[in-house]
Design goal:
This protein is of the alpha/beta class and 341 residues long. Helices cover 37% and strands 16% of the residues. Helix 6 links the parallel strand 9 and strand 10. The N and C termini lie far apart (51 Å). The N terminus is likely disordered. The structure holds glutathione.
């Protein structure tokens, strides 16, 4: 009798867990509700920004669309939750969002203590400094005594403290919780320096009153591998999200683009046919819990990694960020994805 009671209690607990928003069957939940709930930046030009009609666009937004394409064959099946630096982690932990696709650095603390999983790096970044050209500073090592604007709830704060300490420099941190407050403080001259991920600086500079009066210093003081995060404890969903990112990079490797993906389905290269799901015996997609043409859908929906990069933050955008470290491994960068086979 005792044993029976105990197993009933365990059953109830498992049910409660399974039925909660943070359930471990995210793919099934996502399919059932018909959309991916994606946590994105509250507004960072090029990365995630809603237009006047509320349509979200950007590099991180396209990743949400890529996952929706993989699951539903439809990039529009996404709902967006804009999240500040501080709010993003509770939102993922609680199950309010299915993925965090928001300039988030993969660190050991987030991978362990906070309970997340990271695997793909969609943007290799590093922390930098922006100053007014009029300050006549050429290096971060000349910033002793500066007032430095920084946002709370980021890796940026600790890197900043470490860098100034390691170089024996004094500084005055000016810390805000909201991005608008940091931007306003820097733009009004309350801070001499703005520090965040270098990609963020390129983006934020465009929103200043006079972008041309500001420059980004050459120093990169940290490693900021940015990528999508999911909750621990759901390997299938983790695989879907990771392999969506890898599909984008593999497509660029193969020369598959949004424009030629239909033609590529009939490529004589068996590797490409398998990737796009047109090899008769493939189980590559179904093993992932998706259809065999999931990668075709991703590329049809958003294009390959290079296309997503150039359109949102590269040469086809006002940011004009160079590929740099984010070039393919075969072109001098470190973007490298394991094979789909
Ligand atoms: N990559 C860093 C920084 C990410 C971050 O939140 N950056 C700020 C400044 S660019 C931001 O995006 N803020 C937007 C917001 O809080 O709404 C991290 O993961 O902690």
């Amino acid at each position: 009798m005792k044993i029976k009671l105990l197993s009933a209690a365990v059953g109830a607990a498992v049910f409660a867990l399974g039925a909660s928003a943070a359930s471990a069957a995210t793919l099934a939940d996502v399919k059932a509700k018909g959309f991916v709930q994606c946590g994105v930046n509250s507004g960072l030009v090029g990365f995630a920004q809603p237009d006047a009609s509320g349509n979200w666009a950007g590099f991180d937004v396209d990743f949400c669309k890529a996952v929706a394409s993989a699951v539903f064959g439809d990039p529009t099946k996404v709902k967006y939750t804009p999240l500040s630096a501080k709010d993003r982690f509770p939102a993922l932990q609680s199950g309010e969002v299915d993925i965090l696709s928001r300039n988030t650095t993969w660190t050991i603390n987030r991978d362990t203590a906070l309970g997340f999983n990271f695997r793909a790096v969609t943007y290799y970044d590093g922390q930098g400094f922006m100053v007014r050209k009029g300050l006549n500073v050429k290096s971060a090592l000349e910033l002793s005594g500066a007032a430095v604007c920084v946002q709370a709830g980021t890796t940026t704060e600790l890197n900043l403290a470490d860098y100034f300490k390691a170089n024996n420099l004094q500084y005055n941190p000016v810390v805000f919780e909201k991005l608008e407050e940091v931007n306003a403080a820097y733009d009004s001259g309350r801070c001499d320096v703005y520090t965040t991920d270098q990609s963020g600086l390129y983006s934020l500079r465009l929103t200043l009153k006079n972008p041309d009066e500001h420059m980004i210093l050459p120093e990169i003081i940290s490693k900021e591998p940015l990528g999508p995060a999911v909750r621990q404890g759901d390997d299938q969903w983790f695989d879907v999200v990771s392999w969506t990112a890898f599909a984008l990079v593999n497509a660029e490797d193969f020369g598959i683009t949004q424009a030629n993906v239909d033609e590529m389905k009939n490529s004589p290269n068996p590797d490409i046919k398998r990737f796009l799901g047109s090899e008769a015996d493939t189980k590559i997609g179904t093993d992932l819990g998706l259809t065999n043409d999931w990668a075709y859908n991703v590329i049809k929906g958003v294009g390959n990694y290079g296309e997503v990069f150039e359109r949102n933050i590269g040469q086809g955008s006002p940011l004009k960020i160079e590929r740099g470290l984010n070039a393919l491994w075969s072109k001098g960068g470190i973007q490298y994805a394991p094979p789909v086979r």
